[in-house]
């Protein structure tokens, strides 16, 4: 399958590498027209305010609002996917969750944790960098993982959002899960 990584800001190369390690083809997406070439899209981490501004500037907000393409958001990408952001307005509103930014406290800017992720594995290394957490889950969103009592991974149909950065380790199982479980099943269902 061909999976795009939104390449306006953030950790793009690392995601492309995980897509390739999963045995699929990756494509850096810079223009909305390229969305037609891919089966699923990854929204990388970075800085969500900047990411949103650039997505609007290049028309990705509208293009993705009209699309039902599977999307995997990591960290800032999760914030962009959420219906509600504490203290701000939601953006793509694809995931029925409320996220709180930078919510693991200033004193722990970043940390790593071994995660049990439903459907993936019980030993996934999670790298958290000024990470958001999922404060509330509603509708059909399903919790896949919690750390320190905070929700850090959710899935709703063809949308997957995680607070951490799977692409910063060599463990590509979360990306493989997105492609092989979510994108593949979405294709079968819509074929
Ligand atoms: N703190 C960033 C934000 O709120 C997200 C950080 C990240 O993507 N690593 O946008």
Automatic annotation (TrEMBL):
Assembly description: In the presence of PdxS, forms a dodecamer of heterodimers. Only shows activity in the heterodimer.
Binding site for L-glutamine: 46-48, 101, 129-130
Catalytic activity: L-glutamine + H2O = L-glutamate + NH4(+); aldehydo-D-ribose 5-phosphate + D-glyceraldehyde 3-phosphate + L-glutamine = pyridoxal 5'-phosphate + L-glutamate + phosphate + 3 H2O + H(+)
EC number: 4.3.3.6, 3.5.1.2
Entry annotation: catalytic residues: 75, 165, 167
NCBIfam families, A to Z: PLP_synth_Pdx2
Protein name from the UniProt record: Pyridoxal 5'-phosphate synthase subunit PdxT
Coiled-coil boundaries: none
Role played: Catalyzes the hydrolysis of glutamine to glutamate and ammonia as part of the biosynthesis of pyridoxal 5'-phosphate. The resulting ammonia molecule is channeled to the active site of PdxS.
Protein keywords: Glutamine amidotransferase, Hydrolase, Lyase, Pyridoxal phosphate
Pathway: Cofactor biosynthesis; pyridoxal 5'-phosphate biosynthesis
GO biological process: L-glutamine catabolic process; pyridoxal phosphate biosynthetic process; pyridoxine metabolic process
Gene Ontology cellular component annotations, sorted alphabetically: cytosol; glutaminase complex
InterPro entries the record matches: Class_I_gatase-like, PdxT/SNO, PdxT/SNO_CS
Family the entry assigns: Belongs to the glutaminase PdxT/SNO family.
Organism: Staphylococcus argensis
Pfam families assigned: SNO (PF01174)
Gene Ontology molecular function: glutaminase activity; pyridoxal 5'-phosphate synthase (glutamine hydrolysing) activity
């Amino acid at each position: 399958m061909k999976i795009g990584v939104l390449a306006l800001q953030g950790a793009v190369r690392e995601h492309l590498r995980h897509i390739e390690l999963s045995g699929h083809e990756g494509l850096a997406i810079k223009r909305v027209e390229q969305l037609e070439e891919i089966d699923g899209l990854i929204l990388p981490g970075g800085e969500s305010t900047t990411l949103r501004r650039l997505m609007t500037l290049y028309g990705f907000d509208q293009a993705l609002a009209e699309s039902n393409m599977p999307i995997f958001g990591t960290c800032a990408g999760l914030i962009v996917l959420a219906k509600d952001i504490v203290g701000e307005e939601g953006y793509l509103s694809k995931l029925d969750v409320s996220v709180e930014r930078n919510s693991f406290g200033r004193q722990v800017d970043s940390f790593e944790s071994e995660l049990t992720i439903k459907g993936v594995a019980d030993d996934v290394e999670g790298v958290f960098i000024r990470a958001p957490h999922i404060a509330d889950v509603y509708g059909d969103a399903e919790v896949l993982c919690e750390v320190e009592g905070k929700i850090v991974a959710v899935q709703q149909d063809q949308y997957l959002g995680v607070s951490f950065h799977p692409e910063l380790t060599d463990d590509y199982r979360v990306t493989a899960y997105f492609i092989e479980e979510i994108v593949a099943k979405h294709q079968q269902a819509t074929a």
